[in-house]
Design brief:
single chain; alpha/beta; Rossmann fold; two-stranded parallel ribbon; seven-stranded parallel β-sheet; 331 residues
């Protein structure tokens, strides 16, 4: 993993909410590897995996808090003594939000507000959080620029837009240093391959390896700015440690700036695995955005963000990871 900071973090403490999750655990890994004084994870393990943080349990600077961001006392406890907060905890997935908008709102909006308030009360230096490209909704233009959004197409998108509104208010009202990241289709190792809302890449790899059905929604020509997880880690580290006052009170696209179709993704995975397989096409998903491509010039300018991994680089690492995982499980 590349080094994304130049500051000395040996006396700094970090709280990662959702740290047992996919992106969160990679942020934890980076901070512990690079000598942070304390890295505390807050997670209720509803979508995060214990196996993602088992890697860190013996590390002397790691601390785990089992708790729910919907509980205000838990949030206050987790923020106490922390210098920085990276808020990754959320109920992801557009389909999940369509099926259960109330739970999505409780976690993503009430939980977010609890964390913002706790961070304010604990006087943390900087609070960064995961937003989503879903906030662009029906805005048709490509590439997506931060200042131009449309109407949200799902309850999930509504919650992420609400997060951005709360962040803006807290930034202005209480003088907090807050930064939001609109992630574009982040993928990589440790992405959960199980459950009804599993991510597309591990599902594709598993289906091809096991000669099982692989489903593509719609015609498969919808495009995405697929973003390898280390790029998201870089954004969080640069955001938390930013010394540029102009960088605060902002949201940023976190992506690569390239788009590929789902059909292209499927064929690329199949080629890497070198296994003959054909997908099954089915109805489009409700609430999905048709095309997605990010303009990342703002993040480059104000955060020094520079994605280290292109789509093909990250895809090979990811396919190798899941291939090994499935092969070991079979054996």
């Amino acid at each position: 993993m590349s080094l994304f900071h130049t500051q000395d973090i040996r006396q700094k403490s970090f709280l990662i909410t959702g740290g047992a999750g996919f992106i969160g655990s990679h942020i934890v890994d980076y901070l512990l590897t690079n000598g942070a004084r304390k890295v505390r994870v807050l997670d209720n393990l509803s979508t995060g995996l214990q196996s993602n943080v088992d890697l860190f349990t013996q590390h002397p600077h790691y601390e785990f808090v089992l708790g729910d961001i919907r509980d205000t006392a838990t949030c206050q406890l987790a923020c106490a003594g922390m210098d920085y907060v990276s808020h990754q905890a959320a109920l992801g997935s557009v389909p999940r939000s369509v099926k259960d908008p109330v739970s999505t709102n409780e976690v993503n909006v009430t939980g977010f507000l609890n964390m913002l308030t706790a961070a304010k009360d604990a006087a943390v230096k900087t609070f960064v959080f995961a937003s989503s490209s879903a906030v662009y909704g029906d805005e048709p233009h490509l590439p997506k620029v931060e200042e131009r959004i449309g109407n949200p197409l799902s309850p999930y998108a509504v919650t992420k837009k609400t997060n951005e509104l709360y962040a803006d208010v807290f930034s202005k009202l209480y003088g907090m240093n807050i930064i939001g990241f609109r992630y574009f289709n982040v993928f990589g190792e440790r992405q959960d391959p199980n459950g009804p809302y599993a991510a597309v890449m591990p599902l594709f790899v598993s289906g091809i390896i096991n000669n099982a059905a692989v489903f593509i929604n719609g015609d498969g020509e919808q495009t995405r700015d697929f973003t390898y997880v280390d790029n998201a880690v870089q954004a969080n580290i640069r955001g938390m440690l930013s010394a540029d006052t102009d960088s605060f009170g902002q949201v940023y696209n976190i992506a690569v700036g390239e788009k590929f179709s789902v059909n292209f993704l499927y064929k690329a995975i199949r080629d890497l695995l070198q296994i003959p397989h054909e997908p099954t096409y089915r109805q489009e998903r409700e609430g999905d955005i048709r095309n997605s491509l990010a303009d990342i010039s703002k993040a480059k300018r104000l955060l020094g963000y520079n994605p280290q991994y292109r789509f093909e680089d990250g895809l090979k690492l990811t396919v190798d990871y899941f291939k090994n995982m499935y092969t070991n499980n079979i054996n």
